[in-house]
Write a structure and sequence with these properties.
375 residues, alpha/beta, seven-stranded mixed β-sheet, 13 strands
Length: 375
C-alpha cells in the first residue's frame, strides 16, 4: 500500500528528462549553469587534505553555526543562539521535511498557499496531517480573509514561501501585519517560512520573518546555502527556530541524516569569511533584466518578477493548449524546456502560464530567447 498514492514523478524530473532526450535548452529545473565562485572551489581543494572528513556534531559544524548567527544578525539584526536555535540540513527540502515531521501530527491541518512547491503536501501527508490548500489571488497576493476563514483549532501550521517559487512574488509589510493578527487570533499555529531565495530580490526587498518579533518566536525559518551561493548540488541548508521547536526538529533530523556533509559545511564556513551576500541580488537582477530584454520581441507576456531566479510568462497569445502540453511541445518543437504553473496547484489550475529559470550564462539565455522569439 502506497503512503503517497497520488504522487508521481516530479514535473521537474519529467521536463529535465525530456530536455535531455531532445537536446533542448533546460530553463525548467532551477539550477544555475555558470561556474561556482573560484574562491569557494579553492577552499574546497585545500580542505580535502585536512581533517574534515568525519562526522560533524548532529546539529552542524560549530564554526559554521557561529557564522550563521553572524549572517542572521548582519542581514536581519536578529540575535540567535547557535547551540539551541540552528540546525544545518541536507538542503532546505530536508529542513522542511524534518520540521513538518516533528511538529505536525495525526489529524493536524496545514495551510499551504497555491501555487506551492511540490514537497509541502507530501511532507504533511507523511505526518498523517491534512493539507489545506488555498489559492493565492490571480496576482499572487494572499487573500488573508480566506486564509483566516480556513483556520480552526485543527490548524497546526501555515507554510509561506517568500520570495515565492514559482512566481517571484514577495510578501509586503501589510501581508505581515495580517499574518500577525491571524496568528494572534490562533495562538497554537506554527509558522513555517520557506525563505530559500531570501538574498535573490530586486526592487522589492525581501522581508524576513527574522525581522518580526511577533512571529519569530513561533516560527521555523528555512534557508539555503545551495540557492544563495548557486551550489544546488551541495544540498546544504539551515533551519532557525526557537529552542522549544528546534528541540523537536532535531529529534527527527537525528534519525534521518544525523549530520550533514562535513566538507561542505567546513567550506561554507570559511567562504562566509570572504563573501558578502549583499551583492547577490544585484547579480541576479542583471540576469533577470537581460532575459526580460531578450524576450521583449517575443509573443510571451512577462509577469512581474520581484525575487527568485524564475520568470513567469503567459503564452495566451500563442496557444490555447493546456500548460503541460504546451511545455512538452516547447521542448519537442522549439528546443526550450519550461515548467507549467498548473502543476503547483492542487486542482491543476491552468492560467496559460509557464516558468523559466534565468540562472544561466548569457549565451544560454540568448539562444533560448532566440528560439522563443521565433514562436
Amino acid at each position: 500500500m502506497s503512503k503517497l498514492p497520488n504522487s508521481t514523478t516530479s514535473i521537474f524530473t519529467v521536463m529535465s528528462k525530456m530536455a535531455t532526450e531532445h537536446n533542448a535548452i533546460n530553463l525548467s529545473q532551477g539550477f544555475p549553469n555558470f561556474p561556482v565562485d573560484e574562491k569557494l572551489t579553492d577552499i574546497v581543494a585545500q580542505l580535502t587534505k585536512q581533517d574534515v572528513h568525519q562526522y560533524t556534531p548532529m546539529a552542524g559544524y560549530p564554526p559554521l553555526m557561529n557564522k550563521i548567527t553572524t549572517l542572521v544578525a548582519h542581514s536581519y539584526q536578529r540575535t540567535i543562539q547557535s547551540e539551541t536555535e540552528i540546525l544545518v540540513t541536507t538542503g532546505a527540502t530536508q529542513g522542511i521535511f524534518s520540521s513538518v515531521q516533528a511538529l505536525v501530527g495525526n489529524g493536524d491541518e496545514v495551510i499551504i498557499l497555491d501555487p506551492s512547491y511540490d514537497s509541502y503536501e507530501p511532507n504533511v501527508l507523511l505526518s498523517n496531517g491534512t493539507p489545506v490548500r488555498i489559492a493565492l489571488n490571480d496576482d499572487y497576493t494572499p487573500n488573508w480573509e480566506i486564509i483566516e476563514a480556513a483556520c480552526s483549532e485543527k490548524t497546526k501550521m501555515i507554510i509561506i514561501n517568500n520570495p515565492h517559487n514559482p512566481t517571484g512574488k514577495i510578501l509586503t509589510e501589510s501581508d505581515f501585519e495580517a499574518l500577525e493578527k491571524l496568528l494572534e487570533k490562533f495562538p497554537n499555529i506554527i509558522l513555517l517560512s520557506d525563505e530559500v531565495y531570501e538574498y535573490i530580490t530586486f526592487e522589492q526587498k525581501h522581508i524576513s520573518v527574522h525581522t518580526k518579533p511577533l512571529l519569530r518566536n513561533r516560527a521555523v525559518v528555512i534557508s539555503s546555502f545551495g540557492k544563495t551561493f548557486h551550489i544546488t548540488g551541495w544540498k546544504i541548508g539551515y533551519v532557525v527556530a526557537p529552542e522549544h521547536l528546534m528541540t523537536e526538529i532535531k529529534k527527527v533530523h537525528q534519525f534521518l541524516v544525523f549530520s550533514v556533509n562535513s566538507l561542505s559545511q567546513a567550506a561554507i564556513s570559511e567562504y562566509l569569511d570572504i563573501v558578502s551576500v549583499d551583492s547577490i541580488g544585484d547579480f541576479f537582477q542583471q540576469k533577470r533584466d537581460y532575459f526580460r530584454q531578450l524576450l521583449g520581441k517575443s509573443r510571451f507576456k512577462l509577469l512581474p518578477c520581484e525575487g527568485t531566479y524564475f520568470q513567469v510568462v503567459s503564452y495566451e497569445a500563442i496557444s490555447n493548449e493546456n500548460d503541460v502540453d504546451f511545455c512538452k511541445r516547447l521542448i519537442t518543437e522549439h528546443g526550450v524546456a519550461a515548467i507549467p504553473i498548473s502543476t503547483f496547484y492542487e486542482n491543476e489550475k491552468d492560467l496559460k502560464l509557464i516558468r523559466f529559470c534565468f540562472a544561466k550564462d548569457n549565451a544560454t539565455l540568448e539562444e533560448a530567447a532566440r528560439r522563443l522569439c521565433e514562436i
